[in-house]
Amino acid sequence: MTRSVLALLLVCCGCCCLAVAQDEKPSKGPKVPEVLLSDQHQKMVKVGVGQEFPQLTLPQADQEGGQPKPLSDQFGTAATVVAVWHSDGAMAKSMLRDLSYDIAKRYQAKPGEKPQVATLAIATGTPAAEAIAESTGAKYTGPVLIDESGEAFDKLGTDRLPRIYVLNSKGQVVWLDIEYSLSTRREMKQAVAALVKKAAE
């Protein structure tokens, strides 16, 4: 075998190995975490992954008689985080604080621009005054919506609060959790980052 033929074979083998390595290389960047719920918790969920978030129109806590806007008009261009909570919930304050710090501030939109990532906090079974006091105490900076009768929450599920939904640009649920914890916070940030990355591609 001549040197030129041997060199050509080595080059070809190298290209094949490179192609295989590229095919096997895992994709970089964050991915939306898988939602794993027990059978008991699944029964508490009426709107799950892959489903469209209900078309809700709720007043803002500080509107004082202003015209309520549909939630869909307040969605972000890449993602929306919807938090449903009650002022009596022990973890509500932590969730609202984290929403403001991890999402609202990190993905803050320029004045006059629609946010890439929006946050919406729905206070269910809670009067407006209590919702304002709770969100202010937690230094939450996003819109606080009022579902005092609980009708909106009835469309989403039962029992466990607070709960978090991450929606894509079409308003579909891509991730959720029906309680709030450190793992919830971590996976919420990961889901949002994955949607932002996807929107940028």
Q: Could you walk me through the main structural features you see in this protein, from its secondary elements to its overall organization?
A:
One of its GO terms (molecular function) is oxidoreductase activity. The chain has helices at about 5-25, 40, 90-105, 130-135, 150-155, 180-200; strands spanning about 55-60, 70, 80-85, 115-125, 145, 165, 175. The chain contains six helices and seven strands, in the order H-H-E-E-E-H-E-H-E-H-E-E-H. The protein has a single domain, classed as Glutaredoxin. By secondary structure, it is an alpha/beta fold. A five-stranded mixed sheet has the order 5-4-3-6-7. The protein has a two-stranded antiparallel ribbon with strand order 1-2. Helix 3 (about 90-105) links the parallel strand 3 and strand 4 (about 115-125). The radius of gyration is 22 Å and the shape is globular.
The number of E-state strands comes to: 7
The CATH topology is what? Glutaredoxin
Classify the beta-strand content into a percent band. 15-25%
Order of helices and strands: HHEEEHEHEHEEH
The shape, in one word, is: globular
Report Rg: 22 Å
Decide which structural class fits the backbone. alpha/beta
Main sheet record: 5 strands, mixed
For the biggest β-sheet, the strand order reads 5-4-3-6-7
CATH architecture assignment name: 3-Layer(aba) Sandwich
The amount of helix comes to 25-40%
Count of individual domains: 1
